[in-house]
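[agent] plan:
  1. take the single chain provided in the ticket
  2. run structure prediction with default settings
  3. attach structure tokens to the ticket
  4. add a short note for the reviewer (M.T.)
[agent] executing step 1
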Amino acid sequence: MSTAISPMRSPGRMKKKLGLFALVGLTFYSVSGGPFGIEEIVKAGGPLYALLGFSLLLVWAVPEALITTELATAIPEASGSVAWVTLAFGPFWGFQEGWLSYLSGVADNSLYPILLLDTFVSLIQSQGSDSMFSSGLPRLLFIILLTVLLTYLNYRGLDVVGRTTIIICTLTMMPFVVFCIIGAFKVDPTKWLATPENGIYGINWRLFLNTFFWNINYWDSAACFAGEVDQPGKTYPLGMSLAVLLVGISSFLPVLIGTGASDIPYHEWKDGHFTFLAVEICGNWLGVWMMFAASITNIGTFIAEMSTDAWQVAGMADRGIIPKVVGTRNVYGTPTYGILISASGVLVLCWLSFSEVIEMLNILYCFSQLIEFAAFVKLRISHPDMSRPYKIPLGTAGVTLLLLCPSIFAIIIIAISSKWAFITAVVTIILGIIVHAILRYMRVNGICEFENQYEDCYDNEGSFYLNKMHFHSVPTLELHGSSNSASDRSLKPRSHSESYGSNYTASPLDGTKASATIDDPGGVSGEKRPLIPRV
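[agent] step 2 finished; step 3 output follows
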């Protein structure tokens, strides 16, 4: 049997824009962006436990990168993990996944305009000058203007953002290469053995784990670019592997050299400390270079995170989970309203303190990850034969064990969160349930237009996946095949029992009706039969 599909795509989405290195750059800045911001793990736990803490890359980053690679290549949609959860548990849980991960991402992104400005101010002050942007109206206007300018960069296209992250990554890593080479000759290995006075009981676990987690999470954000990546089945496995190596090496080596070569007490380490280490170990010239690198790193992380958030929101609109208008693309092929919504969220949240934002985004992200892990295992069970261009070489039991450690880690992060962060998370979850109910009411009563452009279609064995099918308001599947009996030609939604006449299963997630055109000897040529959407 052959299947012919004529998808109707929007003009801005015809061309695949991202190659291997753009994917690596976007993933790198969505996850980490280098060692800036990780300094406080040394303050919280001392050099020995800080260095040992990088084993969390194996516990968290590697499993998350693996499942992202598997599902991003199997389901290359802009909504990323929302599509996985929707396919596994239905649109209610898909919305909750998108709600939690989006708010976590926006909270994370609200940090970077302020971090960039503070680094810029420090750079000016290091040259003996005062900065007018330290406080007051000039500081406020600078943050707003910076957010607008970087938002426009996202508006111009994902390919522009991808190329920008490659350039920024190169410029950012250069001073650290120099730092590690020069510092390696000044290392005293005995300094790596320093620990808090009370050993593990002297570790500030909340600061230690939250800082680490913040610097190694959001691997699943790379899935939001899957629909724009050229040859995702080949690009993602290599791209995610390179991103994991880049994140690990770019964070571990500077901490290794810094703790071994510096005479500054480890309890004095704080955000931005690599600048002081560069001055101490190499000289003022590298300190200035390091501050410049820190400034542009914040640009890279901001534009990468905004791209992730905007594309995920647009992907949710493409799936009919939120109103269709939110998924509108501009002439550059980027989601205009998704970008504007993300920018608005950044401006609203950027006035919270750094520690408050970190705890809030971490706990929200942990809840979303637990849903995501469950969806991954569920899909392995319910859709074992789904086409997976890359598949983790483990069975269902194996991947369950693989996700056990990161699940425990996520639960620990939730457990050690402050009372304020936990209450915020609970309120956010309740709001998510309310917002979903409102959206459902709007869809049922026709208040807004909802359109699902993706059909989750499988044959009777679940072995063939038809993805990225873009339709107008009444989507149509054109199926051509042959069969000897009507019993072999059943096309039916997974959640319904109606037979529609070919060997495929369809389950639209919006309120529209699709129709199948059948052309085979055993049926009525050209007959159209409705596909009942799963709601």
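[agent] step 4 note for reviewer: Confidence is low (pLDDT under 50) at residues 1-14, 456-535.
[agent] ticket updated
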